Amino acid sequence: MAKKVKAVVQTGGMQLDWIAIGAAALVYMVLGFFWYSPKMFFPEWSKQMVVLSSGKMEWYTMLSMPVVAILYSIGLSRMVVSMHFKGFLKGMLAGVIVAVFYLIMANSGKWLFANKPSLFWIDFGFQAVAGILMGGVLGKLHK
């Protein structure tokens, strides 16, 4: 008889539901694909980013996105579980909390010190919308 693979793993007194984390990470990557596409915000974003003035991204940049998505999902998952945010709307609340209390601060240098408000709104907007949707997915799938 084949062994069942556990989708929920106990870590530090809290459960990690890898299926929910994977689904939330997928939401992050799909949204990022569209958000930073040439038809949406990529033209303005690349203009504001001095690093991409050549118009070419390094290969490792795209490979790092799944890692970032999974780390963001794990953090949000732990928040959803620890705060007992069950359901899509309550999960979305976790994303709003992260956006208000962390993402604004983390992205504020783009506006305050680099004087690039459009870059702030593009990056903060993506991370906030992604976090809110990811939180919703995690809250919905939370067991």
Give the terminus-to-terminus CA distance. 26 Å
SSE pattern, N- to C-terminal: EEHHHHH
Strand elements, count? 2
**Helical residues, percent:** 55-70%
What is the CA-based Rg, rounded? 17 Å
Beta-strand content: 5-15%
Residue runs with pLDDT of under 50 for 5 or more positions: 1-5
Structural class category:
mainly alpha
General shape:
globular
Mean pLDDT, rounded to whole units? 84
Multimerization state:
single chain
Main sheet record: 2 strands, antiparallel
The structural domain count equals 1
Output the number of helix runs.
Answer: 5
Strand order of the largest sheet: 1-2
Secondary structure elements and pairings:
Blueprint: E1 8-11, E2 14-17, H1 18-35, H2 42-48, H3 59-82, H4 88-112, H5 117-141
Antiparallel strand pairs: 1-2
What does this structure look like?
It is a single chain. The chain is mainly α and 143 residues long. The chain has one domain. 69% of the residues lie in helices and 6% in strands. The protein has a two-stranded antiparallel ribbon with strand order 1-2. Helix 3 crosses helix 5. The longest helix is centred in the last third of the chain and has 25 residues. It is globular, with a radius of gyration of 17 Å.
